[in-house]
Amino acid sequence: MATCIRLCLQIMSLFLFCTVCNSDISCRNEAGEPVDWFIIYKLPKYKIGEVSSGVEYMYLDSSVGSWQMSKFMINTSQGAMANTLNQLYMGKVYKSNSSVYALYNDGPPVLDYIKGYGHTKGVLLFDHSQGFWLSHSIPHFPSFPERGYVYPSSGKVNGQTALCTTYNYAQFSHIVNQLVYIYPRFYNCSVPASFLGDLPQLAQLCEGSKPQLVADKRVEELFSIGGEKFVSFVKSEHFVDDIYTGWVAQVLHADLLVESWQRQGHDLPSNCSLPKHTMNIKRIRLPGSVLFQSLNDHSKWCVSRAYEDQVTCLGDLNRERAQVWRGGGLVCSFHPLIYKAFRQVVDWYIGC
């Protein structure tokens, strides 16, 4: 009898331990399980020779190994994006004082567009233990917490990308230092009193204040909770140059192939004027013969042209004239799986 009781208690303890682990704030995969990082590539509505729903997406994390077409739609309450954000919405975290959340977008949902903010979009959600930073390219997203998970109809037309990474608490002070340079438009956020000592600048940004900068750009190494290194490059509006050509390619010593939304008459041409070159991608071919042009893709990412460099960056800025004067950034990875996934989908680019 005693042996049975001890066994039952051990099983209960294991169950409670797993429940607590699974309740930690983190990026969530397609099944709702915690992951170190994931990337989503939302497909455009208008592909070459095809018109689709505009809500299909491909999913990538370290466990799947390559792009996988999701069985979910991005505008439903299932899948990696919804699973991750529902920690804010369904958990009612936004009503508690035990965690920080911050939603930012230069084109926020419902509210009018205001000039002066960085061209950047994302979400922070974390407590004193850990949380996630989700950066993405989707205007009018995500919705206000009290509305629950809503994907905007405007986000169906073009291709979009999102990078979610799970970090421990100590990393978020470094992330906030980067966001200061971008000057995001925080349209909904909460920084409870217990976090103010560590994150005073985040509270300032949430209030709409603009902290003083000591330079016009900044680079920071970040380490995910699983130990994966990411490098964040951010520039303010005072760094008047194309972030890809004028800075990132030169620092990383790599020729870059760049995919970004390039409206005709506003785009910057491929540039080989500096030691390391930047060339515009014009067509993407994802697995399953998904083929589309850059003008239908609102995502912003780049890869090194040379396979040995293994550089992949996702971020905020287009190679567009007006955005030379905008704040924004890139998060770069040297993970071979991420590099292979993005490098293989480059179907056509314009050299110099």
Automatic annotation (TrEMBL):
GO terms for biological process: apoptotic DNA fragmentation. InterPro entries: DNase_II. The keyword Hydrolase applies. One of its GO terms (molecular function) is deoxyribonuclease II activity. Belongs to the DNase II family. This is deoxyribonuclease II. Keywords: Hydrolase, Signal. Pfam families: DNase_II. It comes from Channa argus. It catalyses: Endonucleolytic cleavage to nucleoside 3'-phosphates and 3'-phosphooligonucleotide end-products. Residues 1-23 form the signal peptide. It comes from the Eukaryota. It is an enzyme of class 3 (hydrolase). The keyword Hydrolase applies.
